[in-house]
Amino acid sequence: MKRQTGAFALSLLPILMWMAIQVVLVWGLGYMITWLGNGISFLGGNPQDLYTFWEENPSYLINILMDSLMLIPAGLWYRRLPAREKARQGGFFGLSPLWLFLLPAAGLALQLLSGLYLRLVFAVFPEWLRYYTYVLENLGMTEPTFLPLLYTIVLAPVTEELIFRGLSLKILEMEFPFWAANILQAFYFGTMHGNMVQGIYAFLSGMVLGYLVKRKGTLAAGILCHFGVNLSGVLLGLL
């Protein structure tokens, strides 16, 4: 029991590290932008473009920096964890060319299922639609530009898979059976989305992503499927 409690606590540490980086950036990035602006002014330049860019994109600048910075300690930690199973050899990180197509396609299927789920939720709780639309607008996904696309399609799948399926799941598997470890990491993943609407389908998606990583023996399986979920979500939103 003590070992399971220790594994549970340790599995939360990657998420707490990720959140700590976010807190530091939220507190300090504005000061850094001001410092850079003062430097540009000192050199005779006009910092207004820098200030405007910051004012228009604070959340995505923080998220992009947060995920980029987290990749370093999380990647080093992941490499030191003992492997629970031998990854398949050949292809892209052990994946055959067929799976390079099937995994993003599975992400599209998950996105379509989440769309059906959202229709059911909004039919029962129509007031939730307003809040969900507000969340998407704040994320910039109603009219995505370069930074939202960079974060949503590239960085988020890599960083989130590394944290939840790479670190938390593998740490939990050291002391828990896979089914229990998978439920716990999916619960973490759903909770981190911060609201009930996204949290439920993120939990279910997290279960599927954890299974794929376990089944294929490589974190690349989760990254590619997650990439398919986010890319198809952006494309469907535009359509």
Description:
- The protein has nine helices and no strands.
- It is mainly alpha-helical and 239 residues long.
- It is globular, with a radius of gyration of 19 Å.
- The longest helix has 41 residues, at 2-42.
- It has helices at residues 2-42, 48-56, 58-80, 97-124, 127-139, 146-173, 178-191, 196-216, 219-238.
- InterPro entries: Rce1/LyrA-like_dom.
- One of its GO terms (biological process) is CAAX-box protein maturation.
- This is CPBP family intramembrane metalloprotease.
- Residues 145-231 form the CAAX prenyl protease 2/Lysostaphin resistance protein A-like domain.
Which strand-content bin applies to the residues? under 5%
The main pleated sheet reads as: none
Helix content: over 70%
What would you report as the Rg, rounded to the nearest angstrom? Answer: 19 Å
Judged by helices, strands and strand pairing, the structural class is mainly alpha
What global shape is seen? globular
Number of helices: 9
- Listing every helix as H and every strand as E from the N terminus to the C terminus, the arrangement reads HHHHHHHHH
- Average predicted local confidence, pLDDT: 87
Whole-Å distance between the termini? 51 Å
How many beta-strand elements? 0
Q: Which consecutive residue ranges, at least 5 long each, have pLDDT under 50? A: none
